Amino acid sequence: MHDLTATTALGGTTAEVRDFEGLRISECPDWALASLASRLGREDEVAAAAQALLGAALPGVGACAGDGPVTAFWIGPEQWMLEAPHGSHEDLAARIKAAMGDAGSVTEQTDGWVRFDLEGAGCHQVLELMCNADTRRMDSPAATRTAIAHQSCFLIRRADGHFSVIGPRSSAQSLHHGLIEAAYSAL
Amino acid sequence: MSQKNRLPGGQIDRSQNLDFTFDGKRFTGHPGDTLASALMANGVRLMGRSFKYHRPRGVLTSGSEEPNALVELRSGARQEPNTRATTAELFDGLEARSQNRWPSLTFDAMAVNDRFSNFLTAGFYYKTFMWPAAFWEKLYEPIIRKAAGLGSLSLEEDPDSYDKGYLHCDLLIVGAGPAGLSAALTAGRSGARVILADEDFAMGGRLNAETFAIDDTAGAEWAAAAVAELHGMNNVRLMPRTTVIGGFDHGIYGAVERVSDHLPTPAPGKSRQILWRVYTRRALLCAGAIERPIAFANNDRPGILLAGAMRAYANRWAATPAQKVAVFTNNDDGHRTARDLMAKGVRVAAVIDVRPDAPRIADCELLAGAQVIDTSGRLGLSFVKLRQADGSERIIECGALGVSGGWNPNVHLTCHQRGRPAWNPAISAFVPGTDLPQGQSVAGAAAGAFSTHAALRSGAEQAAAILGDLGIKPDKARLPRAEDAPVNIQPFWHVTEGRGRAWLDQQNDVTVKDVKLAHQENFRSVEHLKRYTTLGMATDQGKTSNMGGLAIMAELAGKSIPGVGTTIFRPPYTPVAMGTLGGRARGAHFHPVRETPSHIWAREQGAVFVEAGNWLRAQWFPRPGETHWRQSVDREVRAVRGSVGVCDVTTLGKIDVQGTDAAAFLNKVYANGFAKLAVGKTRYGLMLREDGIVMDDGTTARLAEDHFVMTTTTANAVPVYRHLEFVRQCLFPDMDVQLISTTEAWAQYAVAGPNARKLLQKIVDPGFDISNEAFPFMACGAVTICGGLRARLFRISFSGELAYEIAVPTRYGDALIRRLMAAGEEFDVTPYGTEALGVMRIEKGHAAGNELNGTTTALNLRMGRMVSKKKDAIGSTLSERAGLNTPDALALVGFLPKLPEEKVTAGGHLMNREGPLDAKHDQGYVTSACYSPILNSHIGIGYLKSGSERMGERLRLVSPLTGQNIEVEVVSAHFVDPEGDRLRA
Q1: B660 and A132 in contact by Cβ < 8 A?
Q2: Domain match, B188 and B245 both
């Protein structure tokens, strides 16, 4: 076991959590991410392997899939992002690659991103100041890509009153600042 | 001052007093008042001075179309010029000042301009102040600008914040008058997702200003009940204080919500205003109508206002401009004003109606067939002079005159996509044309349906039709009963008799005579008329004046009004503050900041940061005693070349390239060969644009047969990724290749210097042999460090030293830099920044952004042979163009000054020692320069014609910008270790 201490995208050793009236904004570092892309002509093999891994079919455009530890959301034609708890799946990319073999291309994405979860009734009011996604009409779950605080982010509706904003890790401070300002303004 | 002109009733809360000041004088009003209504109630008619002639002016209207009553609100950094007193909501402590006057509103010395009005007519600046020509810019224009104008800025930073936001709806209803409310009730009750926006703080539109009953309740009460019902619907969003400012493509509308303008200061954390982008499936414009004045001599005195506005002040705000008033009208609506004012106890001296057959009015003298031909009163109206139907003159004493020339449907938003309104002779006004923006409908007075019944009905019907289109079953509720009076109007635009100036556009001081002058001088197109006279410009955009101007132009040209046409309507509907357009993207938050994994640690070290794109990179790390950046940078360079240094290179773009055709794909995008790169090896790659010019360079490592990691320059990370996706998706869609960025996923550090290996051996786990034999120059591979953390190791060197780049998952980046520093103590490890990095790459002759400047070829870089002839790569064919391969083509070389202390200037141009110093004899230019602490001399690299054949030649380096002219010697660009022994050590 290595002896290097991880820091969160905001630079702390513990996740930043901020509470507002009707909303909690939490930094969520404990998630592993890996991208999966079907190789040309191997789409069916990837779909079959993913079905076994997720317990569900890979999601279509704008959708999410999976209710086990590993879930997926669509990010492009024959491209998905897979998520799993970091504690149990730090090696998520390696596991997916093992499942896909040569049929799919898998890339570790865990630390390319920062995830902020918005939980509470106030999430729509904050998100309508941040992005042009129609959050009130999004399916639950569903995923979209949208500009938030000038950054290209994934926006995932996980349940009613629960959204994840997944944005570029290096700009975590700017993204967090934008969300906090919007929360103060909207709530 | 007491509220001497406050009337009974109204929709103000008399239980509370609000204190405010106007030009330093204290007044009292009530919640529900606007600044204009409160001033009026306090007996103030004079509220401003006109733009050009500094004529005394009062309110003309009761809404956002106001041209005259522009004031400065607040003070200090929140000072806000050109605010319409008619829309400014009164709050306790409001400070307001009149503007464009000196020294005071009642005595304005600049009113002398009015005496010179003959010299200041339309287009005067094209005719006068022409001689001497040199005086215009330095003398005349500054004087004119100072004399004319509106409010002033504080020149302090705005302390408030502004938001931008996004809304979505099935139906956006613009305007919450009878039509808008009726439509909202229909759509809301049907379950549609509705946004109802109104610029007023009280929804209801004219229902709040009239005395009509709807069913058995007052119109204002019906409106309040409708708003209450809508408020209870989860599917309806009510947005008072929100102006829809423009209609854009695809059903998108812009709207400005004034969140805190009605408060002294915004609540903590709250924005002042929000600029909303509203995505609609359909939109219904219920923006009502705007009354138009009649032009007559001296029709601009304070106290002369639109009849509908006079009625609104009386009914809604319980205020009257005077206790004795008169009405001048060409239609029945003017009579309503007289009736309502009388009902409030105001004495109406007469109704002056241009129509000989005007209907009689009870309890008031009717002067049918009469016209107002002049007025008098120094700072406010005292008398009006009439020409009566029998030809006699008559003077009537009154403190206010309500004028009604009819109503114009508010078609503004129907024309934002270059639509043109259509003329409706029945109401003598333009109505929306047939070319409405996609998805837009119009109802109520905006569509020419002027009665309350017609407005309610058209709102409900249009909403039902829209719902039908959207597949939503419309609610079919009973339409309430309301008045349904017909429009009786005799078109009448201006009184031809009278000696004084008849004002059309009170904001821009444009008179009937100015329009005649424009016509006389052949500015006959309405667009030319507007530019020549300034009719319809500035903050009100001619909402009350354009029609008058068009009518007069039509008379002069012998055309019909629709034959003359209208000017183009453009967004925004009302002025928008720059701060609102900027939103929160200002100052430090103008753009997102990207921080490297070592940012916190570097900040602790006192690093000086530099912006590279959005990245903040450590530029150098000052140490105690160092007083100049050169001291820090020189020390860092010596430390790297002498022992070992560490630099955060995370910012370089990293693109994961996978697939069975990954190698073939790289062979296409790089000019040099990649197909045969062995697994575990890294290669420098040169990427060309299609036109043969170098696009980017970097190293690409082969981690597996079907897996590469490409690095790009920091600045080009996104453009290169975009380029690769274009190539993948459009040029070679049959290739099996997948791309994804991993730039931020890995914290990557360059460890460079003779002791780099020794340092890394302390943290790379023992199972990995990184000796020169096992891990030679350009090797790469996966390793573990510090007891098992997965990492990637690349033996590549930008500095020219024995060097590695080590990458770990970014969350461990902070820990790794601290570990490297701790482990490297015995080697006196030194962090180095981008300046030292730059110095070392110049010493080594490595190209960077300065050299890859969008004009250079591989040949210029002296890498011509890298462009493989054995394969087809992007740019390789066009790189062979003759023009790019001339015998004297620029080539990258180095330059040493004759005297080491002489600075070599990047951007300086090279000239032969003898001969003229001009562009024609240019020999090339320096791209990068620095002081080399290794050579103890300034050095530079750059492009020189036939450079590779001119080693040892002495040239002049000149920079006209800095006045530099020094002698330099042409040398190899590789100043340090030209054979590469160090990096292979």
Answers
A1: no
A2: yes
